[in-house]
């Protein structure tokens, strides 16, 4: 399994850090976690064919996490000499269906014609997709936003999306091989709907995660030594993501 950070930033233009998007690949599957503006083209820039993408997980419906759904749907019906047959499966928070129908009203030409599109709305739940066991909790960023855990044959991955500290989040992350956690702000920054470096370090340490990838950095976090700030609380492996960062997990025996 390989994790590729397609967008390590926010809606604020920052060199090397685009809006949120994470590609997770294995031999027989590929999933996308969030899809902020430009995500589809960054998939291609990393050597993957976005036309083959089937599984999309959205943490919430803010524009910096969802806008490239429009580009993806247009791609599927506008690629010369290619007709999409493979279905698309979107998992998201409550309201995702209404969000999708709103996009179809604004952009009626991108509604799927040759393939099926299925939307699963969820709150706190557990279910299986492909060979992946998926667990979700409410992340605290909005009333319906989600954090995801993916347990696979290669290991376990948690993607917090935008979130706030909570005991439920610690439980979701327990023993994870990789935690991809938003770290919007530096240590000491007061925030009620995001995480700062102190929150991230304490979460990773309390949950006993093996590796931490800090992402979704606003400019004040970019300007700080985020790894050093996180390491005051967490003793494990820390990566501060930039666009194109890759991490590979070896299949467990």
Task: Fill in the keyword field for this structure.
24% helix; 253 residues; 7-stranded mixed β-sheet; 8 helices; alpha/beta; Metallo-beta-lactamase, Chain A
Tell me about this structure:
Strand 11, helix 6 (197-207) and strand 12 form a beta-alpha-beta unit. The protein has one domain: Metallo-beta-lactamase, Chain A (4-Layer Sandwich), CATH 3.60.15.10. The protein is built from eight helices and 14 strands. The chain is α/β, with parallel strands linked by helices and 253 residues long. The mean pLDDT is 97. The two termini are 14 Å apart. The longest helix is centred in the middle third of the chain and has 11 residues, at 96-106. A seven-stranded mixed β-sheet has the order 6-5-4-3-2-1-14. The protein has a seven-stranded mixed β-sheet with strand order 7-8-9-10-11-12-13. It has helices at residues 39-45, 63-66, 68-77, 96-106, 167-173, 197-207, 219-223, 226-231, and strands at 2-7, 21-26, 29-35, 55-57, 88-92, 117-121, 125-129, 132-138, 146-152, 155-159, 178-182, 211-215, 237-240, 246-248.
Write the layout of secondary structure elements.
Layout (H helix, E strand, L loop, with lengths): L1 E6 L13 E6 L2 E7 L3 H7 L9 E3 L5 H4 L1 H10 L10 E5 L3 H11 L10 E5 L3 E5 L2 E7 L7 E7 L2 E5 L7 H7 L4 E5 L14 H11 L3 E5 L3 H5 L2 H6 L5 E4 L5 E3 L5
One letter per element, helices H and strands E, the order comes to EEEHEHHEHEEEEEHEHEHHEE
**In angstroms, what is the radius of gyration?**
17 Å
- Number of domain modules: 1
Considering the protein shown, what is the CATH homologous superfamily? Ribonuclease Z/Hydroxyacylglutathione hydrolase-like
Strand order of the largest sheet: 6-5-4-3-2-1-14
Low-confidence sequence ranges: none
On the 0-100 scale, what is the average pLDDT? 97
